[in-house]
């Protein structure tokens, strides 16, 4: 660990929470010219339609979720451009897109078609959340060196 990494920045120690801890951890990794080498990087984008859409809080209709998820598989979204700049792969995961059939090209870990409306009920059950987390961990842990990344965002 390297606590000196944030010296000179104007923030209170610990104010960045887990991001600060990650920065300190990265600073302690071996690298070149003080830049840590994290090897393969990946951005996981978990896609779902959210029931709270019914409250009128979304910027676009829920059909846009499936369209944007498909666009991510083609690398034509903002997150894909930013990931490419960082040398990271984008993994698009369907955890609850409200379509009749799974979308080709997405990693299918769908726990339901859409989620509950958080204004009136949980988005998903605890069992669904636990299953989803376990599925993601198993998918990446069992993937071998092909999919394993040292830095997931």
UniProtKB/TrEMBL annotation:
<dbReference type="InterPro" id="IPR003200">
    <property type="entry name" value="Nict_dMeBzImd_PRibTrfase"/>
</dbReference>
<dbReference type="GO" id="GO:0009236">
    <property type="term" value="P:cobalamin biosynthetic process"/>
</dbReference>
<comment type="similarity">
    <text>Belongs to the CobT family.</text>
</comment>
<protein>
    <recommendedName>
        <fullName>Nicotinate-nucleotide--dimethylbenzimidazole phosphoribosyltransferase</fullName>
        <ecNumber>2.4.2.21</ecNumber>
    </recommendedName>
</protein>
<keyword id="KW-0169">Cobalamin biosynthesis</keyword>
<keyword id="KW-0808">Transferase</keyword>
<keyword id="KW-0328">Glycosyltransferase</keyword>
<dbReference type="InterPro" id="IPR023195">
    <property type="entry name" value="Nict_dMeBzImd_PRibTrfase_N"/>
</dbReference>
<comment type="pathway">
    <text>Nucleoside biosynthesis; alpha-ribazole biosynthesis; alpha-ribazole from 5,6-dimethylbenzimidazole: step 1/2.</text>
</comment>
<dbReference type="InterPro" id="IPR036087">
    <property type="entry name" value="Nict_dMeBzImd_PRibTrfase_sf"/>
</dbReference>
<dbReference type="GO" id="GO:0008939">
    <property type="term" value="F:nicotinate-nucleotide-dimethylbenzimidazole phosphoribosyltransferase activity"/>
</dbReference>
<dbReference type="Pfam" id="PF02277">
    <property type="entry name" value="DBI_PRT"/>
</dbReference>
